[in-house]
Design brief:
InterPro entries: FAD/NAD-bd_sf (IPR036188), HpyO/CreE_NAD-binding (IPR038732), L-asp_N-monooxygenase_NS-form (IPR052189)
Protein name: FAD/NAD(P)-binding protein
Shape: globular
Oligomer: single chain
Number of domains: 2
Number of strands: 12
Largest sheet: 5 strands, parallel
Strand content: 15-25%
Pfam families: NAD_binding_9
Bound molecules: flavin-adenine dinucleotide
Length: 309
């Protein structure tokens, strides 16, 4: 793409990808407009969580936003009292990314438009975008950085307020708070990293009811093999599961990190115990009843596939 210097490049989506495209363009003196309609510019879905228990799934030392400066994020984490080997809070990475966004805006090369893009038409000299407030925006080039779209609702419980289809929505946050107040049982559909986040959110909110996670393959995420060396470990889902199942202390749970916690091959996978049970079913014949809230977790998380077994 050759940039027409009279018109900016339009970037739709202000998560990590959109923010960094804008930052790279600004470094080359190319103007852009970053369009994000969810109020998440500079955070995206992953780093807009406010829950301290939600941590990065890799260490700080591999999270630099800049390929030419691999310790860029480490310096930020260390300035906050952290360590390069830490799994820091995702909201801290969000602040880091938001800082890059602010620097890019301050450079004069980027304008932020907090609207939803609803249409884009190519023309002879670029693109015309329609925003959800009816405004039109012309651009020399178009970058789609819209991330994963919200999950399709599953075929059950579409009309029930007790079934939460998008684990990253405001409804999911409200459900966590309601469940913490009522201590009702929860069914989590799926056993990947989003399940881990949901368990941590429920636990941090004070929920002490039963949590059942439903899996098609009976696999749950594996720990990092050397997490026993981790400095000041956060409250991990392994800790939470261990405590809830009465399987041992937090330190025993941490020592077991790295062990493969799943049975594989579609059998019932552990985390046996009183409060947390992970069940493997290929079909999902789930009907929401009056006695429990279902948080349906169906978001594609292919980039986070360390739950493969
Ligand atoms: C819960 C979670 C945790 C994760 N943890 C990690 C981690 O620890 N380490 C790691 O490396 N990766 C992690 N990831 C992967 C992470 O998503 C990617 O690394 C990266 O942040 C994806 O950024 P993105 O900009 O492509 O998408 P997103 O962050 O999804 O951003 C897309 C943005 O586009 C906006 N948008 C969409 N459509 C429109 C439209 N029509 N108009 C305007 N705006 C629009 C959305 O509002 C959103 O803000 C995680 C992902 C999730 C979901």
């Amino acid at each position: 793409m050759t940039s027409d210097r009279h018109l900016p490049v339009a970037i739709v989506g202000g998560g990590f990808s959109g923010t960094m495209v804008a930052a790279h363009l600004a470094r080359k003196g190319i103007e852009s407009v970053l369009i994000d309609g969810a109020g998440r510019a500079g955070h995206g879905v992953a780093y807009s969580t406010r829950e301290p228990a939600h941590v990065l799934n890799v260490r700080a030392e591999v999270m630099s936003a800049w390929a030419h400066d691999l310790d860029h994020f480490v310096r930020v984490a260390e300035a906050d009292g952290g360590h390069r080997r830490d799994f820091v809070q995702r909201q801290q990475f969000g602040r880091y990314l938001r800082g890059i966004l602010k620097d890019t805006i301050d450079s004069g090369c980027l304008r932020l438009v907090e609207r939803q893009a609803v249409e884009a038409e190519p023309g002879e000299d670029g693109w015309t975008l329609q925003l959800d407030n009816g405004e039109e925006l012309r651009a020399s080039g178009l970058v789609l950085a819209i991330g994963n779209q919200p999950p399709e609702p599953l075929p059950f419980g579409r009309d029930s307020s007790r079934v939460i289809h998008n684990p990253w929505s405001g409804d999911a946050q409200a459900a966590v708070e309601d469940l913490a107040a009522s201590n009702e049982d929860v069914l989590l559909v799926g056993t990947g990293l989003t399940m881990v986040d949901a368990v941590l959110s429920l636990d941090a909110a004070g929920h002490r009811g039963r949590i059942v996670a439903l899996s098609r393959r009976g696999l749950i995420p594996r720990g990092h093999t050397d997490s026993a060396r981790h400095r000041s470990p956060p409250r991990t889902y392994r800790t939470v599961m261990s405590e809830r199942s009465g399987a041992g202390s937090a330190s025993a749970a941490r020592k077991s990190a790295g062990a493969r916690p799943s049975t594989g091959s579609g059998r019932t996978a552990t985390a046996s115990g009183r409060a947390f049970r992970c069940t493997s079913r290929r079909d999902l014949p789930v009907t929401p009843g009056p006695g429990g809230t279902f948080i349906v977790i169906a978001s594609p998380r292919k980039s986070l596939s360390d739950c493969k077994g």
